[in-house]
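Researcher: Please predict.
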Amino acid sequence: MLGVSFGYYVITPLSINFLGNYKVSAEIANSISMDSYINTVTVLSMSTGIIFELPMVVYFLSKLGILSPEFMRKYRKHAMVFNLIIAALITPSPDVTSQLLVAIPLFFLYEISIYVSKAVVSKKRRLEKAT
């Protein structure tokens, strides 16, 4: 819900404002249809909602033994570049501000995911020692 809210209340107004005020030339009128508006709101809200599920995905991948906190720390720089690419794909406008508004929470979610993975792996190791 936090991701959908973030997309709806933060990213969507910036993107709609940018797309509504964008002028190619004086001869070309900028008209936004209701279908285009609803599509933009839906895509932005749903995509940020899906992206904000990153800690949950990391939890399950760590539980299965596919992902470890060491791996995530080692490839942190690669993840930052990947986050910027994802943020560029989510935001419909070539506006750097809205791209960074998506990328910054993704960076924090990645860091939170490292701690989630660490907690899962350490709990798994404690259970293995106990048995």
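Model: The CA atoms of residues 79 and 110 lie 8 Å apart.
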